[in-house]
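It is time I had a proper look at our fold encoding. Can you supply me with one protein entry, sequence and fold together? It will help me judge whether the discrete encoding reads sensibly. Leave the record below and I will have a look:
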Amino acid sequence: MPAYSLALCFDAPMQSWGTRSRGIIRDAGKEPSKSGVIGVLGAALGIPRDNREAIARLAQLRMAVRVDREGILERDYHTVQNVPTTTGTGHRTAVSHRYYLADALFLVVLEGEEQEKLDRILAALQKPVWPLFLGRRAFPPARPLTTSGQPNEPRTGLGLLKQPIDWVLANHPWLEDRAEIRAAERQRNDRSPLRTVADCAPSDPAAETRLDLPISFAQSDRQFSTRAVRTGHVPLTDHLITAEATSCT
């Protein structure tokens, strides 16, 4: 069967994609986690946190991320007052350290064989049931995740493409929208390639394990499983820099 891919732009001044957060330390990965991306889709579709069947159907999609701009890892802290002590004899002020990525930009690609399924997701992302945010409620997207086809819209993801995920990673227009950066890269002969992280078979010799495959987002019963990913690179070609952000379906 032909493969279809959904190309999304994840851009925000701040993003946070933690997979190992425990207690007062809230980590942030270098790129969107699968649980984070499925959470965005679930919010768009209006899927309750405890709907395991619907979450499992979304998690079946193959996912890949292309890092179009590496972010800067930053840290802030939050304070919570009147936290009961473990001895139960009083209260204290708790400080949590929370990490996030500043100024990062990602192309997120989801691949499946059911065009209708991806069409429904695309429609939901353009008219979401609940607000979308990139890792935390305070981190809304800076531009639409996908194109609406209207003229003069921001450079963003091309939406639904009748192409496999690897083709999209290598051919989707670069999402960088700062003219001075694009002009500088056009002049360079030693461009750095774009890092990619893609779902792969566990038997892949280059496979790494990530504990971010969601099972349930229920507040009192969050559960995740593991998936295998492979890190790679695609060249930042002249075509990626100069290509117009128009759908090629």
In short: The chain has six helices and nine strands.
